[in-house]
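Input sequence (360 aa), recorded before submission:
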Amino acid sequence: MLKKRRKTRKIKLGNVEIGGNSPISVQSMTNTDTRDVKSTIEQIKRLENAGCEIVRVAVPDMEAAKRLAEIKNNITIPLIADIHFDYRLALESIKQGVDGLRLNPGNIGSLTKVKQVVENAREKNIPIRIGVNAGSLNKKLLDKYGGVTPAALVESALEHINYLEKLNYTNLKISLKASNIELMFHAYKLLAEKVDYPFHIGVTEAGTVLTGAVKSAVGITLLLNEGLGDTLRVSLTGPPEKEVQVGYDILRCLGLRERGVQLISCPTCGRCGIDLQALAEEVEKRTSGIQKHLKVAVMGCPVNGPGEAREADVGIAGGKEKGLLFSKGKKLKTVPQNQLVDELMKEIDKILDEGKEEES
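Predicted structure, token format:
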């Protein structure tokens, strides 16, 4: 059983609340060149359709910073500017209307420069995420702790936090990213004892879509099981839409969010008489943009298939080159294999339409 969620202060990114009793939000980051406004907007639109609630973009130079207003004006979810080294990029990003900043005060200049950023962020009520990464700790901390340790990560975070607290700025969220799960886990636990700021969680540099999803699920679940985490990003080497999908899958499996399609499909065996892998992949693809919580079963044999399909909102159970179509526990009809996905989608559309009628 999950531990009670850690009590934190609440911040607001655009229209998304983070921390307190707010739902754990799912976010991602674009991998387009931010200066290419068209491609960046197109990718964010795909992320929106996948259910992404917050999006971050890299701001490597002033040209990218000056494109942020156009991007912001063409999307519907909060936009975060990712800043390193140059405080002027943060000032321009605020001017362009971003909803949040990701930066480390210690690497963007003197206290005077940081103060300018803070004052501008305060005026616009823009939260700042202090993002500490195991791969970029300063030499002083590495020497002090003999390498990257949980205590080193936490001390780095506290240095940045204190930097901003001296300026009376507490509109913050914190992340302690590492590719080592044990390191990340213990760092967050240690910091949770010292501050009440909301946490952005995730395993950084997790890997490709498959291995990264597994590693992220393990690391994020360990934190959520301890009640730690207020917003998350699954970091994958692949399409960012996959990050969103995996993020919701993790939260749904833990009973923390009910959004999107929960696909149940069997691993197949010698009894399977249809091409279940192709069917399941097609169903997953065609239901990826659905935000309503639905349980969809795609089963391959007559042993467990009919039972699992009946337990789902809608499902199919395969036979030899054909399958049974179920909806809300009732058998509807037998369908040839080449029509199964289309007939399943028709039933899903009916359920979605019924839901819209109830809401109206």
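Checked by second reader. The mean pLDDT is 88.
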